[in-house]
Specification:
By secondary structure, the protein is mainly alpha-helical. It is about 50% helix and about 5% strand. Strands 1-2-3 form a 3-stranded antiparallel sheet. Helix 10 packs across helix 18. It is globular and about 80 Å long. The termini are far apart. The chain binds s-citryldethia Coenzyme A (SDX). S-citryldethia Coenzyme A (SDX) binds next to helix 17.
Length: about 425
């Protein structure tokens, strides 16, 4: 625990309470309220946790005002430009960039865990073909606990590590199988001669009838998308994984819970919702109507891909993603993509509008990712599964960190109760 030489004094009526203040290596100080209820008999109130630090962590740091994102201290733009996803996975899991030998060992381990138990194929056939692939992923990833019993004991460090490797390696295979099943094509097995991103593209787009050669530029863009989504501090799905893990649930159940939470359009589902919104807008001349709707308090419509709980400046991932969108669309010869044209005009119009600039609503990671994924040939329903497979390493790194935290307790928030006080039961004849 960090320096507690500073205290906050809370006065309630004639009483005052000293609350320790902890200073981080970066970011705001925190007021330690763990003893508050016991001392003062009051709860704090923070629905949505806008002012609440739920844990200690050393994995990812975000400065929302500067638009800064660090993984173990390394800026995301440097990692996106110079590193690659499996190296970032190693960094998130173990805290340091690997030596060449350690990286090769890690990549070999992941590569040799990419197949799933053959009997798990049966799960897919129980779903409707038109099931959303996120529904399939929640089910099949959770079902991993029914097959990999030798890596479910959370008290065994080696089992925790094997479960981490299995999840990073197998979730892309499950996502690709969910896609293949949804389009009625046969599953494509992983290949050990391909790197992580190329293997995922091959499992999604190869067919038995002919050879599929992965374009290295698309593989690089796919890898960059994985890297940009790898971890993001204590977001809703990561907090879900931590809360599930605090009860001692097995890693596969915890990651399935994270996938379920990510699915929502306010979170990881925003990339699908954003592309559907851009297509509904259709062309730049319709933008003013949608900007007006987004500003109208009586209209639930929001600009998907805009705004963020933490970033009150540009999301640094969106900046990198925008560059990638230009590269990929140029490569594919679709630089005149009407959706991209609408996206760029919408970004320009929104940023020029005081409503968005005053509320600090800038494009987030989901604004451009869908454009790249669609250009690559993915249907919108696959956008969030791709976010989920990318974020699996972040979830599992935070899961491991929490299990190693001596302060860890089961998460159990309280409430501000506004319901009925005690009253007696009324027999039905008297109601
Ligand atoms: C992700 O937490 C993470 O780190 C998440 C993530 C990760 O990597 O894990 O970064 C991934 O989830 C990115 C966000 C993707 N979601 C979207 O793009 C959906 C659209 N965005 C909004 O739903 C919203 O901006 C949130 C959910 C992202 C953030 O919401 P907050 O922080 O709770 O902010 P808020 O809802 O309180 O909004 C503040 C004000 C409100 O107006 P007032 O009530 O103050 O007048 O801004 C307005 C909102 O109405 N507002 C928007 C808006 N987002 C917020 N108005 C129009 N369009 C929007 N997109």
């Amino acid at each position: 625990m960090s320096d507690t030489s500073k205290n906050a004094t809370l006065r309630i009526g004639d009483s005052s309470y000293e609350l320790p203040i902890h200073s981080p290596t970066a970011g705001p100080d925190v007021i330690d309220i763990r003893k508050l209820y016991g001392q003062a008999g009051v709860f704090t109130y923070d629905p949505g946790f806008t002012s609440t630090a739920a844990c200690d962590s050393t994995i990812t740091f975000i400065d929302g005002d500067k638009g800064e994102l660090l993984h173990r201290g390394y800026p995301i733009d440097q990692l996106a430009a110079k590193s690659h996803y499996l190296e970032v996975c190693y960094l998130l899991l173990y805290g340091e960039l690997p030596s060449a030998a350690k990286l090769e060992e890690f990549e070999t381990t992941i590569t040799h865990h990419t197949m799933i138990h053959e009997q798990m194929h049966n799960f897919f056939r129980g779903f409707r073909r038109d099931a959303h692939p996120m529904a399939t992923m929640v089910g099949v990833v959770g079902a991993m606990a029914a097959f990999y019993h030798d890596s479910t004991d959370i008290n065994d460090p080696r089992q925790r590590e094997v479960a981490s490797h299995r999840l990073i390696a197998k979730v892309p295979t499950i996502a690709a199988m969910a896609y293949k099943y949804s389009i009625g094509q046969p599953f494509v097995y992983p290949r050990n001669d391909l790197d992580y991103a190329a293997n995922f593209l091959h499992m999604c787009f190869a067919v038995p009838a002919e050879e599929y050669v992965v374009d290295p530029i698309l593989a690089r863009a796919m890898d960059r998308i994985f890297t940009l989504h790898a971890d993001h501090e204590q977001n809703a799905s990561t907090s879900t994984v931590r809360l599930a893990s605090s009860s001692g649930a097995n890693p596969f159940a915890c990651i399935a819970a994270g996938i379920a939470c990510l699915w929502g359009p306010a979170h990881g589902g925003a990339n699908q919702a954003c592309l559907e919104m851009l297509k509904e807008i259709g062309s730049p001349e319709n933008i003013p109507e949608y900007i007006a709707r987004a500003k109208d308090k009586d209209d639930p419509f929001r600009l998907m891909g805009f705004g963020h709980r933490v970033y009150k400046n540009f999301d640094p991932r969106a900046t990198v993603m925008k560059q990638s969108a230009d590269e990929v669309l140029d490569l594919l010869g679709v630089e005149n993509n009407p959706v991209l044209a609408t996206a760029k005009e919408l970004e320009k119009a929104a940023l020029a509008d005081p409503y968005f600039s005053e509320k600090k609503l800038f494009p987030n990671v989901d604004f451009y990712s869908g454009i790249i994924l669609e250009a690559m040939g993915f249907p919108t329903a696959m956008f969030t599964p791709i976010f989920a497979l990318s974020r699996t390493v972040g979830w599992i790194s935070q899961w491991k960190e929490q299990l190693a935290d001596p302060q860890m307790k089961i998460g159990r928030p309280r409430q501000l109760y506004r319901g009925e006080t005690t009253r007696d039961y009324v027999d039905i004849e008297n109601r």
